[in-house]
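Progress report, Aim 2. The chain analyzed during this reporting quarter is listed below.
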Amino acid sequence: MEKDKLLEIIPKEKKKVPRWVNVTLLFSIILLLVVAGWFYFLKKQIANAQQRKALVEKNIEETKNKINGFVQKAEINTLADKIRSFSSILEEHKTVSRAIEFLKSKCHPNVQFTNLFVDSEKNTAKIGATAGDFKSVSQQIASLRKEKYVKEAALSDISLSKEGGIDFELLINFSKELFKSK
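Predicted structure tokens for the chain:
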């Protein structure tokens, strides 16, 4: 037992840690701190980049919506202009067939129209016709002069035909309302 006590009394020499171990430990701690700091820094940078990305995507979407809105408004305006243009053209459109239908309905039973030329710009018609007698010719022109769509009706080139009838031309000046589309 005494020997054990002796051993206890004599101080043991502390083993010295080699210097390279201390340097390695210090370097490892510093490296760990640098890596942790770098990790934290990169994590913050990624979060900021994601926020900026979301903001940029939102701005892009808003800009696309604005552009689409402008494009749609431009298309609507273009269509509206075309419709207005077409409406004005339609208002100015003259329907020659209405004049033909009018003349067809007003033809005397003893008169035959042989040719027709309608000038919708001047609102006139030149009609070649044949009648059996002068009475039918006078009734035809009188009935045309009574119509509200006829401003003026005149006879020209009256002659006797080889068949014994009367050939003549009617010159009619129509009112503008006859040629208007309804």
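The CA atoms of residues 32 and 38 lie 10 Å apart. The longest strand covers residues 150-160. These observations will guide the mutagenesis work planned for the next reporting period.
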